[in-house]
Amino acid sequence: MTEATHALKDPWFLSYIPQLTPDVVKYDFKGDWNNAKQALQQPLDYVRTVEELWSTINSLPKLHQLGNGSTFIFARNNVDASYEAFPHGTRVLVDLYNASAAEKGVYVVLSSVLGEGLAQDVCNGKTVCDVLRLSSRPNQESPELVRLEVWLSDQSYAKDVTLYVRKGLIEAGLSSTEFIIGESSFEKDTKKHSVLGAKS
Fold first, then answer.
1. In percent, how much of the chain has pLDDT > 70?
2. Cα pseudo-dihedral 82, 87, 93, 99, rounded to 10
3. Homologous superfamily of the 8-199 domain (CATH)
4. What pTM was estimated for this model as a whole?
């Protein structure tokens, strides 16, 4: 007898980018971040059900234990997860300062995005959250820092998405000292990468 599965609204393609540092990009890829990501990105598999999602998450290494810049990417229907593919979009960034906060935060954000709570509760049923990035970002002050990025195809929802995710994190028991949340436009980052590329 087979157990019932619960299909996600859309399939999400999971891929992995190993540790990617400014030095690797500068010396191995002549400063071209997009080229570096494309060359190093490892396709893994589609996640189509709730059960596959949590089985996959439970089988992955803990984010805070990966090398700085190591990133898992979930892309709805395998959309292009590049800044240029989101001309009217933005991203909501969540930095989680310790391993315990990261574990709870990943659960909240994955449930909200892949479970379509954001689409239903914030975006009037529209699927504007198309990419989710989970990255290791340790630094001297926070050696277990994890960054979650929710990429939106429509920047007009950014404020409401930010408030929704913040509320979910607090309801999951995180204190305001365990995370920071904000918005970062793709336009600013695209310009920064263009300038970096021009300098090399």
1. 92
2. -20
3. RNA Cap, Translation Initiation Factor Eif4e (3.30.760.10)
4. 0.85
